[in-house]
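Exercise 3.2. Students should predict the tertiary structure of the chain below and write it as structure tokens, then compare their answer with the key that follows.

Predict this chain's 3D structure.
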Amino acid sequence: MWELIQANKSKSLFLFLCMGLVLFFLGYFIGAALYPPDGGIIGIGVALGVWIILSLISFMGGDQILLLSSNAREVTHDVHPQLFNVVDEMKIAANLSGRPKIYIINEQSPNAFATGRKPEKSSIAVTAGLLSRLNRDELQGVIAHEMSHIMNRDILFVTFAGVMLGSIVIISDVFLRGMWLSGGSGRRYGSSRSLKVGGQAQLIIVAAAILFAILSPILARLFYFAISRRREYLADANAARLTRYPEGLASALEKIASSNIPLFSANKITAPMYISDPLGNKLSSLYSTHPPISERIKILRTMAHGANYSDYQKAYAAIKGRSPIIVPRSGLRDKATVPIRKPSIKGEKVDKKEQARNVGDLMRAVNGFAFLICACGLKMKMPPDYREPKIKCPRCGRENEVPLAELAAGAAAIGAAMTSLFYSRRTKGWESFHCSCGRLLQLAPTFSGSHVVCPSCGRKTIIKS
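Answer key:
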């Protein structure tokens, strides 16, 4: 697959240059509009500076920015052993030198993404909702899909493109909001002298700057989207080959698509990274970063004769009714038979109460909660700031020793002491807000406490009056 990696590197460079050009033109028009008559040169200089700084940030820490903006938190093996086990399996199958860092996003919506600039510096993030809904075969399919993005160097493309697209969107948004607040006349920006000197020509430049500020994010997105959809198909093909079980990924995609729980931490910048579009773009496929998920499922389920790349290519052609080459020719030259294995789990029964309990426990574990099982069988959940040496079981009344050292170590490891959120009350009536996990919390007019604790994830939110 070396030609695919080389092609992805070339496309990433091409995309990087195209987005840089969009940024330059944006800087020129905004500079010319704000500081006529020579502001265009200043704008290009500022854009060049922004481009260099953002490029360095993207290369050195773009993945951390994306993980931070997604509220993803790195976890240890103890939090979810099965997830670590599956990632290790797929790392070996993909022949990667090191295991990606593993993050969990504290949300109930099922989804996942990978990021990083190279395999040795990569990360995989999955939501708590995904872990609670998928069985082992399905989770393996999703992890194999994300591992394929790492293997194919798609993560470099996504990281660069995401940060660059975000900067273009932010600069355009700041300029347009500034023009809106100033009444669109540009009085706050250009000097009165320059406006008198420029006259009608200056008004045309301001209009051009506004138009380009509107169009540049769209143009940058088109560059981004043009080559991201093929990467999704290819990652599906890789996942089918790595797992030798296409139905696992197909079933996982089906469960993800059937969920109507919003992913609150996703935004327009991070949405293309996910295995399924969390914003549910209903617009034309021209603006979609992902192929239709129903189509992806059909292709995977059409692979009845094998799990090799050529089998995926045949299934793709059968579903799409045409045969553009999705898999690189080096992959199609591999004529070896890759038999589809049998499922590892049969006759699975879905218990929605158990599922909800699992996702709640997982989100609490990510937030540094400790779990203590009493001799009567009741599982007690203690927050990271719990300091009492003993706890009384609410079911049998037995006194239980609290593992304070373990609790403190776990809280320190994930920075739980820093995870308290804040909410400032605006009125004295009913108010509602969302916890970072997505749970809607409400405050009654009579509420007089200092904080509330989310019943889903256990995170504390301090209430300011």
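Discussion points: The chain is about 50% helix and 10% strand. The longest strand covers residues 122-127.
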